[in-house]
Amino acid sequence: MQVEGFLDRDRGTGLWLLGPELYLLGAGSASRYDVTDVALPFVQRLAHITGESAFFSARRGDETVCLLREDGSFPIRSHVLYEGIRFPLGVASAGQAVLAHLSDAEIDAYLAGHDLADTYGPAHEEKEVRERIQQTRRCGYSVNPGLLVAGSWGMGAVVFDRAENPAWALSLTGVDHRFAPDRQPELGALLLDAARQLTIAVRK
């Protein structure tokens, strides 16, 4: 692996690191899979309009990974999400939104194979997750009422690929009083509009 360039070894520490060939492979596939340049202005606009922290995440199998973060003007921030962090579907607001837009059969198979409550607590029992799926389907956007960190709320909306699969998500996070019930429809409408426009943009 080292000879082929897939691994490299730090001479000082002896630790194995990802090698330069992986960088070249990633660069070669970026034009096909990397849509962060397209998503960035949408994330920035959401942060600017709402004052909250805005994010763009991608689905990778049974997880979402955060690719972009833009902080808004509100001085108190949530630091639950950052670029590179991964969560299983159904946990953070992005993953909640993606999970809700899968088929019933896909949801059943996913929940049968993942015990979210074992890692993330009783709020992620299957019954609770299914209730949030139904709420997301009714509203179009997900709401995470401080399930990861108390007092840190999030909302998310799905971005679809050309095959109508829920491939990405836009989300907002902030302190609980900024996501009060009377403001959620406003934030949800902004997320859904941005997600719709980004869906169109990534298909071009």
Automatic annotation (TrEMBL):
| IclR-ED domain span | 21-204
- SUPFAM superfamilies of this UniProt entry? GAF domain-like (SSF55781)
Q: Which PROSITE patterns match?
A: ICLR_ED (PS51078)
GO molecular function terms noted in the UniProt entry: DNA binding; DNA-binding transcription factor activity
One Gene Ontology BP term is: negative regulation of DNA-templated transcription
Gene3D superfamilies to which the protein is assigned, alphabetical: 3.30.450.40
Question: Keywords of this protein's UniProt record, alphabetized?
Answer: DNA-binding
Q: Does this entry carry the keyword DNA-binding?
A: yes
What Pfam families does the database record attribute to this sequence?
A: IclR_C
Under what name is this protein listed? DNA-binding IclR family transcriptional regulator
